[in-house]
């Protein structure tokens, strides 16, 4: 009887030990074990849940997105400051396009478009760029280069079917005037020379206050007028 009671006792103790081990979480994870830290996959920022560590993703982000670049109102600048900004664009064109004006194509382009730029659609200009790699593609009165042209077209809301008319070119150039700080210059927050230097960072034909193009020597660029002439012209357009 005593022996049987001992066997039963040992058996019950063994069962209790097994049950106790089943309730203990392991300290080392394994393929069939739970880890020390339970990961909530729904809140994991590296999973596709609408959150992102990077700019430009939908949903929440640890970094703010780039500020929205608002579309310039069509005719907004030239309509508001017609005489001054029209003269400024004429000055820029004299440094960039020469006598060909709105139909100018960068002289280094050995394979020119089949039509005059003003007779082309924006889509035809894009096709010409793709079909003639390895050469300059600056085009129009303001010598838009491909990346800049694509950005401006998107901002203005134009399409491949839009014709590259003088009016369209002027409206694209308006956006660049805004980029250079026209509004803050008009408000008196920057002076004329600062605005002139900003313009020179956009158009390689214009000199900076150093007397050289901001892009001097890059892809053959150089200022096509002196700082003295640039300053004199700007002082007449924007006296005081």
Notes on the structure:
The structure is a single chain. By secondary structure, this protein is mainly α. It has a domain at about 80-235: Lysozyme (Orthogonal Bundle). Helix content is about 40%, strand content about 0%. It contains 9 helices and no strands. It has helices at about 1-20, 75-80, 80-95, 120-130, 145-155, 165-180, 180-185, 190-200, 225-235. InterPro entries: Lysozyme-like_dom_sf.
Sheet/helix structural class: mainly alpha
CATH class of the domain at 82-237: Mainly Alpha
Low-confidence stretches: 2-8, 13-81
Average predicted local confidence, pLDDT? 75
- The CATH architecture of the domain at 82-237: Orthogonal Bundle
Order of helices and strands: HHHHHHHHH
Number of helices: 9
Please report which band the strand proportion falls in: under 5%, 5-15%, 15-25%, 25-35%, 35-45% or over 45%: under 5%
Largest sheet: none
Radius of gyration: 34 Å
Count of DSSP strands? 0
> How far do the termini sit from each other?
118 Å
InterPro entries: Lysozyme-like_dom_sf
Write the layout of secondary structure elements.
Elements: H1 2-22, H2 76-80, H3 82-96, H4 122-131, H5 146-156, H6 166-179, H7 182-186, H8 192-200, H9 227-237
Helix pairs in contact: 3-9, 5-6
């Amino acid at each position: 009887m005593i022996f049987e009671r001992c066997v039963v006792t040992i058996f019950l103790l063994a069962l209790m030990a097994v049950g106790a081990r089943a309730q203990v979480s392991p300290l080392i994870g394994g393929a069939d074990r739970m880890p020390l830290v339970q990961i909530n996959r729904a809140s994991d920022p590296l999973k596709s849940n609408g959150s992102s560590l990077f700019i430009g993703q939908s949903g929440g982000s640890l970094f703010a997105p780039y500020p929205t670049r608002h579309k310039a109102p069509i005719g907004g600048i030239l309509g508001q400051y017609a005489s001054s900004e029209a003269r400024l664009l004429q000055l820029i064109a004299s440094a960039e396009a020469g006598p060909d004006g709105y139909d100018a194509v960068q002289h280094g382009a050995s394979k020119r478009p089949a039509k005059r730029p003003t007779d082309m659609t924006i889509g035809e200009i894009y096709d010409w760029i793709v079909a003639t790699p390895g050469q300059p593609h600056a085009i129009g009165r303001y010598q838009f280069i491909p990346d800049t042209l694509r950005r401006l077209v998107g901002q203005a809301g134009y399409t491949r079917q839009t014709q590259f008319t003088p009016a369209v070119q002027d409206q694209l150039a308006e956006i660049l005037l805004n980029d250079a700080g026209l509004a803050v210059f008009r408000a008196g927050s920057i002076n004329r020379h600062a605005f002139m230097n900003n313009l020179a960072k956009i158009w390689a034909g214009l000199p900076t206050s150093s007397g050289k193009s901001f892009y001097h020597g890059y892809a053959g660029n150089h200022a096509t007028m002196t700082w003295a002439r640039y300053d004199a012209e700007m002082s007449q357009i924007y006296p005081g």
